[in-house]
Amino acid sequence: MPAKPVQMGPCRRSGGMGFRAMTHWGLMLLLMFAIHPLSWSADAAPVQAIQLPKQSVPAPDFSLPALDGSVFSLHDARGHVVVLHFWATWCVSCRREMPGVDAFWHQAKKKGWVLLAVNVDRGSSERVAAFVSSLGLKLPILLDADGTVRQRYHVRMLPTTYVIGRSGRILGRFFGEREWMHADMMSALDSLVGRETP
């Protein structure tokens, strides 16, 4: 019998993140979501609550530098499912789950999905690079050092993950540490993606 998936609380960081002045996009995302749990048994609940939007809206577009020196724009992924994962090196839950996120990225590629790990550490990327290197992570790491994209997506705790459909519209979001390679996690995301109407 597989071990029960671990779900840990998200990290918060107080002060200096610039979210008191809510942006237009942040307000839209805040208003569009209702907590609408997708249910699993108590024995297998890698995602205990996926928030589903009250109405379908496009994901805010952005362009960010990647850790490898390239630049990625969200509109380049149109036609693919995008898993947008916000994290930081100072977030204990984020650090702990990153090997699982990296393993999930390898599986997501086989489905034709795109996984983007958006790091929100402020300042130099050296700490991010050192952390990524220490774990041998291979997934795409984007750098949101000034918090612009984090604010646009109204991310107030870490880790936070958005799932964006092939149409470029937001399908849902969830918070906190997950067992990304657990079978029920895969099933949960497949179910969420399957809700998208053509």
Task: Explain how this protein is built.
The chain has 198 residues and is α/β, with parallel strands linked by helices. It has a single domain, classed as Glutaredoxin, CATH 3.40.30.10. Helices cover 28% and strands 19% of the residues. The chain has five helices and nine strands; from the N terminus they run H-E-E-E-E-E-H-E-H-E-H-E-E-H. The strands form three sheets. A five-stranded mixed beta sheet has the order 7-6-5-8-9, with helices on one face. A hairpin with a 5-residue loop joins strand 8 and strand 9 (170-175). The chain is globular and about 40 Å long. Residues 1-8, 14-27 and 30-47 have low confidence and may be disordered.
Structural class assignment:
alpha/beta
Biggest β-sheet description: 5 strands, mixed
Order of helices and strands: HEEEEEHEHEHEEH
Please compute the radius of gyration using only Cα atoms: 16 Å
Number of separate strands: 9
The percent range for strand residues is 15-25%
The CATH C-level name is Alpha Beta
Count of helical stretches:
5
Name the features:
28% helix, 198 residues, two-stranded antiparallel ribbon, single chain, 9 strands, alpha/beta, Glutaredoxin, globular
What's the helix and strand layout?
Blueprint: H1 24-32, E1 33-35, E2 51-53, E3 63-65, E4 71-73, E5 82-87, H2 92-111, E6 114-119, H3 126-135, E7 141-143, H4 148-152, E8 160-164, E9 170-175, H5 183-194
Parallel strand pairs: 5-6, 6-7
Antiparallel strand pairs: 1-2, 3-4, 5-8, 8-9
